[in-house]
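Continuing the batch. This is chain 6 of the set; chains 1 through 5 are on the previous pages. Same settings as before, nothing changed between runs. Recording input and output for traceability.
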Amino acid sequence: MWIHFQNSNGVPTDGKKHYFAVYFMNALDGKTVKEMWHKTAKHEGICRINAIFEKVGTDNQPIPPKPSDDAGKEKPA
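Output for chain 6:
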């Protein structure tokens, strides 16, 4: 099993766009993991598991997200 974390836009600040990707293939009789997962091996399927990472405060409650830099700026009319 190969577990991979990836997000093409970098690490998101909202904490809701993370996932773990599990790539898999059926095992063939008599083959070891190294023999199956060589550089040109193609996975048979993928399963993405959504994950939310939250910081926990001293009271075991999630720490609220910081306001964005744009929150205090006035928008032009």
